[in-house]
Design a protein that fits this description.
Elements (H helix, E strand, L loop, with lengths): L26 E4 L2 E4 L2 E2 L3 E5 L1 E3 L2 E3 L6 E3 L4
Antiparallel strand pairs: 1-2, 3-4, 5-6, 6-7
The protein binds zinc ion.
């Protein structure tokens, strides 16, 4: 692999690949169905609840839901 001589700090910034929005990790495609993870009942679909140690938490409206232990 040929490397360029020392990168100068001038000019173009090195391109970094941004990670895909985490939103899309909440979608799972199985066959022809798209399943979503639990979304906020207050904010509606598109706003997902964060899972924290058995608790589901909405970062938008601070809605919290406890997952039943089963
Ligand atoms: Zn919410």
């Amino acid at each position: 692999m040929a490397k360029k001589a020392k990168a100068k700090k001038k000019g173009k910034k090195p391109h970094k690949n941004k990670p895909t929005s985490k939103k899309y990790t909440k979608y799972k495609i199985s066959g022809d169905k798209v399943t979503r993870e639990k979304s906020c009942p207050r904010c509606g679909p598109g706003v997902f609840l964060m899972n924290n140690k058995g608790r589901l938490y909405c970062g938008k409206c601070h809605y919290t839901e406890y997952e039943g232990k089963k």
